[in-house]
Write a structure and sequence with these properties.
Helix content: 25-40%
Distance between the termini: 66 Å
Number of strands: 21
Largest sheet: 5 strands, mixed
Shape: globular
Length: 553
């Protein structure tokens, strides 16, 4: 039955029937029925089409290994699809708007551009407000709500024009969509030339005409949202300047990866061999970039998996499990590699070096500033007892010994050497306001006090532009350089007896405990909703790298 419906969608019969009326109301599961995901939207607007229309044809897709690479399964379980449903994002938007109510439209418009882009662009084209909260796009009664809840969807990305790619104006949600083409004549860009018969079927089903365009594979497309500049306020509440909240594209551009790997090479990995893209037929296409959009935020994917019904998730839980495994794999296998070098034991003194190589094409971690990575180092004696530990983490996500998790006004510096378990090497950003105080409030973030996130290969920290600079003690650390960090250990093990087992893990966490604590301390309904979701899952990190060495045999 599902395949029959999909074929009707492709022929333009099913979508016409469904879009003649309002979008169907999702049917909630019964008490004995497991939640399997709400349906993807089928609406067809003047500028955009719901993802349910597109996935009606782009389903039942297998690569030559037999793996299911269907767009309805992979994309719908991504954080791109769920960008508008993320409760951490929603609570953060409310927090920023409450702290600067006079800038509410600016704040919500900035966030809407990349979290509810189809609603945002539709409102701009109509000359309407671009609010998210209350009466805005996230309200079920808003006429653009269906498009808003469809996240970063098919007919948004595949309509973006390339004419301003790589320019400053394209960043911070400055992508361009052609508003002039009428419905039925709008173009959908893709990497392949589409035959006339399939092009006609696509136009009938979705209203879009497929057009081959190489720019869909460009990193500059990703840059439109993943280079983000935000305004900041002084203590008097006045706009005092702009701050680079994230600069993932700029980091990549200033690395060796710009010559050998694009964003999609890692985050949309190629399927194995050719793939037939539509149930209407057509040739095998290769390479085919899977629409997994794998990143490191396994915590949010797990939260969506556990609370899918309440959060309005439009995918099967099995698809989210695949997305979680993809996140674990990209962090655990593609982000970093460690080694333990030059270890010696002289009496009770253990000396050595932990070397971390960044294998990502940008800083690690990168993106939104709540993300952090750190070294969890343990030394065990001959009996297996722990005689030294730095960087242990509990289920709430707090790192033992981290000053910032204990006190919002303090933070761990970048270390050249560790000598005490109270010291933790954390690769992170620490923001400061115009008065020099540590903050997690984006509208007060005027500068970085610390940015020692691991640099990609080829990155010149001395010549880095203002949006990608290194800040704090790492700037003067000659062992913190392009491609990673070398950290010395000088540990007094006292009366412990060897041989000693030294273990190191590089752990990664997308929402640092301090960021979560500050947000959950606020009284808004959105912050308290996030607090309930957050409390339902342990905020345990992913292991990006691990190494072990026996010393003193």
């Amino acid at each position: 039955m599902r395949k029959v419906i999909a074929l009707l969608v492709c022929l333009g019969i099913w979508s016409a029937a469904c879009t003649a009326a309002e979008t169907p109301t999702p049917i909630a599961p019964t008490a004995t029925q497991a939640f399997t995901g709400y349906p993807l939207p089928l609406e067809r607007g003047e500028l955009f089409t719901g993802s349910g229309v597109c996935t009606g044809c782009h389903t039942f897709m297998k690569d030559e290994s037999g793996a299911d690479v269907s767009l309805d399964k992979s994309w719908s379980a991504s954080l791109m699809a769920n960008a508008s449903k993320d409760p951490y994002h929603i609570a953060t938007v409310r927090s920023e708007a409450l702290h600067a109510p006079e800038l509410r439209e600016v704040v919500e418009g900035k966030c809407a551009a990349c979290h509810t882009p189809m609603a945002m662009q539709s409102a701009l084209a109509a000359g309407e407000k671009t609010l998210l909260l209350d009466e805005g796009f996230l309200s079920a009664s808003h006429p653009l709500n269906s498009l808003a809840m469809d996240g970063i969807s098919c007919s948004l990305c595949h309509q973006v024009e390339a004419d301003n790619f790589g320019e400053q104006a394209s960043f911070s949600g400055g992508y361009r969509v052609d508003f002039e083409l009428p419905a039925g004549e709008r173009l959908s860009y893709g990497p392949y030339q589409v035959e006339a018969q399939n092009a006609a079927a696509m136009k009938a089903a979705s209203g879009f005409i497929p057009q081959q365009a190489a720019h869909m594979a460009a990193s500059e497309l990703c840059a439109t949202c993943h280079n983000l500049v935000t305004p900041y306020l002084d203590a008097a509440g006045q706009v005092a300047g702009e701050f680079p909240e994230q600069a993932v594209y700029s980091e990549w551009l200033n690395s060796d990866y710009r010559e050998k790997q694009s964003c999609i090479d890692c985050h949309m990995p190629a399927a194995q061999g050719g793939v037939q893209l539509s149930i209407t037929g057509g040739p095998q296409r290769a390479p085919f970039s899977q629409h997994t959009f794998a990143g490191g935020n396994a915590f949010m994917l797990k939260l969506l998996h556990k609370h899918g019904e309440q959060l309005g998730v439009s995918t099967h839980p099995d698809n989210l499990e695949h997305a979680i495994r993809a996140a674990e794999e990209i962090i655990g296998k593609q982000s970093a590699s460690p080694s333990l070098e030059n270890f010696t034991l002289q009496g009770s003194a253990l000396h050595g070096e932990v070397v971390i190589v960044n294998r990502a094409g940008h800083k690690f971690p990168s993106g939104y500033p709540s993300r952090r990575a750190w070294l969890h180092i343990t030394v065990r004696d001959a009996a297996g007892a722990v005689v030294f530990e730095s960087g242990a983490v509990d289920e709430s996500g707090r790192i033992a010994g981290n000053d910032n998790d204990d006190d919002p006004a303090r933070y761990e510096p970048h270390y050249l050497a560790l000598t005490s378990p109270e010291q933790v090497q954390i690769y992170e950003v620490i923001l400061r306001d115009t008065d020099g105080a540590v903050t997690t409030q984006l509208l007060r973030a005027a500068a970085y006090t610390k940015d020692n996130r691991l640099l990609p290969l080829g990155f010149d920290k001395r010549a880095a532009a203002s949006d990608t600079q290194v800040f704090g003690e790492a700037q003067g650390d000659d062992d913190f350089t392009a491609g990673g960090d070398r950290l010395a250990l000088a540990l007094d093990l006292g009366e412990a007896r060897g041989p000693f087992t030294v273990q190191v893990e590089l752990l990664y966490q997308p929402i640092g405990a301090r960021w979560a604590q500050n947000l959950m301390a606020e009284e808004s309904a959105e912050s308290q909703a996030f607090a309930r979701y957050y409390a339902s899952l342990p905020n345990l990190p992913l292991a990006a790298a691990q190494a072990e060495l026996l010393v003193g045999e």
